[in-house]
Amino acid sequence: MTFIAHGIGVSKGKVNGKVRIIRNDPDHASFEEGDILVTRITDPTMVPLMNKAAGIICDIGGLTSHPSIVARELGIACIVSAKCVQTGKPITEILNNGQRIKICGESGEIYLVDEK
Length: 116
Known about the structure:
alpha/beta; seven-stranded mixed beta barrel; globular
């Protein structure tokens, strides 16, 4: 595993999963049960996806932002304000759909899982 990004851990849990980047409504159709939802920020239209997600990572947000509150209510790991540790780029700019990652919703750490 390679440590790639860090953010604010706002909802406890450690999960492995497949990245699914959601930028707009058409992206919703590709989301599968157990994916890790990666987006700029969640909104109420994403709650059905959040119910299926293993975890959530957002470019922006804080302790009382939408993804933080919903993730705590659902009991799933969530990290907000996530950025690359090397470049400082937002998480949506460094991850790709289908990559396997591990996240810790307490520490805010994000790891790329080596697929061998």
